[in-house]
TrEMBL record:
Residues that span the membrane, as ranges: none
Chain residues that bind ATP: E206, F222, R223, F224, H270, Q271, S272, R339, K353
Protein name as it appears in the record: Glutamine synthetase
Main location: cytoplasm
Reaction catalyzed: L-glutamate + NH4(+) + ATP = L-glutamine + ADP + phosphate + H(+)
GO CC, any one term: membrane
Source taxonomy: Bacteria, Bacillati, Bacillota, Bacilli, Bacillales
Organism: Alicyclobacillus tolerans
Positions bound to Mg(2+) 1: E129, E131, E211, H268, E358
Length: 474
């Protein structure tokens, strides 16, 4: 779109407010709103100023002047605001007009350019499957005198004996929430409304359903797209899910493990490479009908997985999901149709153009621009170095890995056990991310320092309620 076409859209839809939105380093969206009568071609082309020191992960107060410049084709008539509002995704610039190196969207764009310059392919396609919970009540606190959290859902199994009002039963059992019909599935209508809003926003939705866990776990799948565009879609998806949930009096969370003893929420990421219309991951008759190039790509992801998880699973809560027994993809191997492997090769109803790999370890706390860019760089490193996943001990393994003997499991590498371990791995293994200037040393060190200072260390310093259960009487 051109700036004039955006102005025409504003006029045609009688827009009163224009919302300019950016994404910070961890992956949260921020916005500033301008009356539509003040928006002109110059503002749409040159952007508006903001205070970068107030955005997490950007820069200090001594150099805080920054500019957000709208991505015009992202224009979106927002149905959730009381006044007619147009939303615009923005990229971040220095005051001198150069792109800001810590802008996550810029990193995604650089990764796509690096791919094209490599001559390996001209497009990388990403199709994430985001799982989330729709909860009815969320309370938490952490203070010097105490800490707690409490969540609730009308369909949670722990409410099967609840009194005080009519209990309509049909609760979802732990690990019993995959595909049940209503009335057990109480959230059909809310998911359908989410889908309708996603489609109005121009997002192609393929399906929606209740997921495995109790307490309102859901999944809505949208159509794959190129790397940066898919990052944009993830941010829009999260926004719409949260807004529709709030309309229904519910809270949507993409936390990987909000519930003890049941499945967590992941973001399984399907990936493939193309040259024009030519798929590069397909070779009929090979294992999983995968080409040699696809196997090199797999080897790159698995060999760099400990470091990748610092971006793909970037929260302390991520590693409460990555434990055995809850369909958690903790095993660094690949396998066709096997959900106990970190990388699954889909084999059902697969055509040459739909041949792909599915990296199952990531979760929804990831900043999608950073996670997808890092995955692509790891895969390309595997291609350029012609890494062989079998020679590196990454399978294929076509067995339920959770049921293997201790001796059989001994040769299988696992994901890091904590965010701190993943950050240590990133500190030691990040040269593959620096190629082509996609990531910079400054960005990676800033990411590591930010995660350690704002998440790892504060959590480590706080007494946990369960510690009172374990140690009060010692």
């Amino acid at each position: 779109m051109t700036a004039q076409e955006v102005l025409d859209l504003i006029k045609r839809n009688q827009i009163e407010m224009v919302d300019f939105r950016i994404v910070d380093v961890p992956g949260r969206q921020h916005h500033v709103t301008v009356p539509a009568v003040e928006v002109d071609v110059e503002m749409l082309e040159n952007g508006i100023a903001f205070d970068g020191s107030s955005i997490q992960g950007f820069r200090g107060i001594e150099e805080s002047d920054m500019v957000m410049r709208p991505v015009l084709e992202s224009a979106y008539v927002d149905p959730f605001m009381a006044a007619p509002t147009l939303g615009l995704m923005c990229t971040v610039y220095e005051p001198n007009g150069t792109r800001y190196e810590r802008d996550p969207r810029f990193i995604a764009e650089k990764a796509e350019k690096f791919l094209q310059d490599s001559g390996i392919a001209d497009a990388a396609y990403f199709g994430p499957e985001l799982e989330f919970f729709l909860l009815d009540d969320v309370r938490y606190d952490s203070s010097p005198s105490g800490a707690f959290y409490a969540i609730d859902s009308e369909e949670a199994f722990w409410n099967s004996g609840r009194g005080g009002e009519a209990n309509l039963a049909y609760k979802v059992k732990n690990k019993g929430g995959y595909f049940p019909l209503p009335p057990t599935d109480t959230q059909q209508d809310i998911r359908t409304e989410i889908v309708k809003e996603l489609m109005k926003a121009g997002i192609r939705v393929e399906r929606h359903h209740h997921e495995v866990a109790t307490a309102g776990q859901a999944e809505i799948n949208f159509r794959f797209h190129t790397l940066t565009k898919t990052g944009d879609t993830v941010m829009m998806y999260k926004y719409i899910v949260r807004q529709v949930a709030r309309k229904y009096g519910k809270v949507a969370t993409f936390m990987p493990k909000p519930i003890l003893g049941d499945n967590g929420s992941g973001m399984h990421v399907h990936q493939s490479l193309f040259n024009g219309n030519q798929p590069l991951f397909f070779e009929e008759g090979q294992y999983g009908n995968l080409s040699a190039l696809a196997r090199h790509y797999i080897a790159g992801i698995l060999s760099h997985a400990p470091a990748l998880l610092a971006f793909a699973n970037p929260s302390t809560n991520s590693y409460k999901r990555l434990v055995p027994g809850f369909e958690a993809p903790i095993n660094l191997v690949y396998s066709k149709g096997n959900r106990s492997a970190a990388i699954r090769v889909p084999v059902a109803a697969v055509t040459p153009k739909s041949a792909r790999i599915e990296f199952r370890t990531p979760d929804g706390t990831a900043n999608p621009y950073l996670a997808f860019a890092a995955m692509l760089m790891a895969g390309l490193d595997g291609i350029e170095r012609k890494l062989d996943p079998t020679q590196l001990g990454f399978g294929p393994i076509d067995k339920n890995i959770y049921e293997l003997s201790a001796e059989e499991k001994a040769s299988i590498q696992n994901v890091p056990g904590s965010l701190e371990e993943a950050l240590d791995a990133l500190q030691a293994d990040h040269e593959f991310l620096l190629r082509g200037g996609v990531f910079t040393k400054d960005f990676i060190q800033n990411w590591i320092d930010l995660k350690r200072s704002s998440e790892v260390q504060p959590l480590a310093q706080r007494p946990h309620p369960y510690e009172f259960h374990l140690y009060l009487d010692l």
